[in-house]
Each structure stands twice: as C-alpha cells, then as structure tokens.
Amino acid sequence: MKKSKKIKLAEHAGFCFGVRRAIEIAEDVLGQKKEKIFCLGEIIHNRSVVEGLEKKGLKTIENLNRVPLKASLIIRSHGVGPEIFKQAEKKKIKIIDATCPFVRKAQNVARDFYADKFQVVIVGDKKHPEIIGLNAHTKNMAIIVDGKEKAQKIKNYPKMGLLIQTTGKTELLKDVTSVLLEKTKNLCVANTICLDSFSKKEEVKKMAKKVDILFVIGDKKSNNTKKLAEIGTSSGIKTHQIESAGDIKKEWLLNKNRIGITAGASTPDILINQVKDRINSNE
Q1: What is the CATH topology of the domain spanning 17-100?
Q2: How confident is the model over 171-228, as pLDDT tens digits?
Q3: 0.90 exceeded by the pTM?
Q4: Which residues are catalytic?
Q5: Dihedral angle sign, alpha carbons of residues 9, 12, 18, 23
C-alpha cells in the first residue's frame, strides 16, 4: 500500500518581523497617498511581493537621482547608509524608514566601533545591500570577509570590532573570531545575527534528522534562503532551494514520505501554502 506523505513545516518558515513590518509600512503609505511612492532598491528580496506592491503604486528605483523633489521615499528593510538620508534631505524628499530594527542595531554597532577607532570587520556578502549599508556607517572603511580564509589575510590591528550580517551563520562568526583573536590584543565581537534568522537555521538542523527531503522556499536573491539551503545540504539531507511550487519536479518526491519545508524571511505564506498543495497533489 502506498504510504501517505507527511509534511513537516518549520515553525519560523516565512516572513520575519522586519520583513512583515516593511511590507505593512509600505501598504499603509500606499493606501493613504495618491501620488507615486518610491523605494530605493527592492523593499524585500521576493519578486512576487515586490510586483504586488508595484501594482499598488510603489516605484522601485536604484538611484536617488530618479526621485523627484519633495516625493516620498521608502527605505527598504535592508537599510542604507547615512549619506542617503543627507542626499534625500537636500532634495526635500520625505523619508519613510522601513529598515529592519535588527539591521538598524547592526548599523549602530558598526558606527560605534568606527567612532571608537576600532578597525571594523564585517562578516557577510560584500555585494548584499545590508552589508553595503553597514559599511557606509563606517565611512566605507570596514574590512568585509565571507569566511575564515579571507579573515586570515587581514593584517594585525591594535583594536578590532567584529560584527556579522543579520542573516549570517553563528559558525561563521565563531570561525572569523578565532582568526582575529590572533591578530589583535583588543577584539570586540558583536553577535548581530537576528533571532528569527538564528531560529530558522536551528530548525533546519533538527529537521534534517527527521525528513527524507527538504524544500527551502525563497527568492534567488535572498541571502538567508541560500544559507538555509546550505545548512540542509551540509546536514546530509537532499535539499532543493525553490522559488515557487512550479519548481518542484515529480521525480524529487519518489519514495520520499517525510517532507520538510522551510522558507526564507522574505517568503510570503501564499507561496508556502502552494508548495504544500503541490506536494499533496502528487500523493
């Protein structure tokens, strides 16, 4: 007799507090104003959500020069550097700040390290908007590394301040910390990983022991989704990072009866439910 498939959904799958807050701020503003509202970069890393907000009047732009004088500008959840606020003030642009509170905390840490004359080191993806914003709070003087190997190339400094991308991995922070302890007599470490990101990663580690296959749902641009998929793979479980239910191939589910699902911080519930429905329809 054919076994029915059991789906285990991670408790913290999907929207985190910061992402949900940013979307609620955007929807509230769009509901009140008749003129077009601008956002510097995609408000979150999920194309379907961004397209939905654009239909309501949100205009995603990549350069502040494209924002008209006295217009309204949303700062996305990833945050920006202080220079953006100064430029907006000069153009009399109204700022609506949707920066994630955890990102803002990390920005404050980076700023304070720099002000106290620490050599700031940030663990993360140097091309990610959050990291670009964090670095801007050090006047772009931070050293950015993505792991132990690059950290080993850093020269010695009298004082060093270390922080990490809010969606980073604890193991990565520990690895870089161990390297920097050999490069300075005064190392200050701030664990700036957000609680939701930490919880999602811990759930994947536990889930990997209880399922036959793991689906991680999220946009390809989403750094935290990528990290979740990496943890699943490194835990030895067959892991597929997908953007939607349409990405699932029937053969992936053959002889797989215990199916795990999690989702990145920018993944809406509707996409998670569609994946569950797709899996159930293949029984």
Answers
A1: Rossmann fold (3.40.50)
A2: 999 999 999 999 999 999 999 999 999 999 999 999 999 999 999 999 998 889 999 9
A3: no
A4: 130
A5: positive
